[in-house]
Design goal:
With 199 residues, the protein is an all-beta fold. 0% of the residues lie in helices and 42% in strands.
Length: 199
């Protein structure tokens, strides 16, 4: 985990903390922190799949790339035309049986827009998912901590009121999305995505 220099709260969003650029990570025992995705692996970018509002006739578009520093970048454009307005990417992910997931932590640098992290227990295109929102600070690295209890079950943006809490043992995929009428270009850079105990 990065050393926290500044903590700030965003109303209604996950807690974020600014972190110094490119400072080496502190060593954490593997039994308490689990990487949900290895951005340095071969073919890392190709593992991510875009699912945008074009499936419903919209015109938004997204892609996921990995730069020369092994950082993932979720980027594209949100269009509100044709009743569209969302863009998303997802990747297959599971946790080992011995892992504990109370919180998910992201180290991100974005454009000041609001994004969502999505968890799924299946890999179907149109299945339900559990999601929560987090804010970004433009052009600033921040550490975002997302307690699992804050993830709510949704299908096509609608809350599923009778769904059970998310079970980490059933994790099949994770994803990122942007919606909520945030029209125009977007850009979110990720250098680490982990699961573990809440601090």
């Amino acid at each position: 985990m990065k050393h926290v220099l500044l903590a700030q709260k965003m109303p209604g969003l996950a807690k974020t903390a600014a972190s110094p650029p490119d400072q080496p990570a502190m060593t954490t025992p593997p039994e308490t922190l689990w990487d949900l995705f290895d951005f340095s692996g071969p073919g890392a970018a190709r593992a991510w799949r875009s699912v945008d509002d074009v499936v419903m006739g919209g015109l938004s578009a997204s892609r996921f790339v990995v730069d020369e520093n092994d950082r993932g970048i979720f980027t594209g454009t949100v269009s509100l035309r044709n009743n569209g307005g969302f863009a998303s990417v997802r990747v297959a992910a599971t946790l080992p049986s011995e892992a504990t997931m109370e919180c998910i932590t992201l180290e991100v640098r974005g454009d000041g827009k609001i994004y969502k992290l999505n968890l799924r227990t299946d890999r179907s295109l149109d299945g339900a998912g559990w999601q929560t929102s987090f804010g970004t600070v433009a052009d600033t690295w921040t550490t975002v901590t997302l307690p699992l209890r804050d993830f709510l079950p949704r299908w096509r943006g609608r809350l599923i009121r009778d769904a059970p809490p998310f079970d980490p043992a059933g994790l099949q995929s994770i994803g990122l999305s942007i919606a909520d009428k945030q029209e125009g270009p977007f850009w979110l850079e990720i250098r680490r995505l982990t699961a573990g105990l809440c601090a």
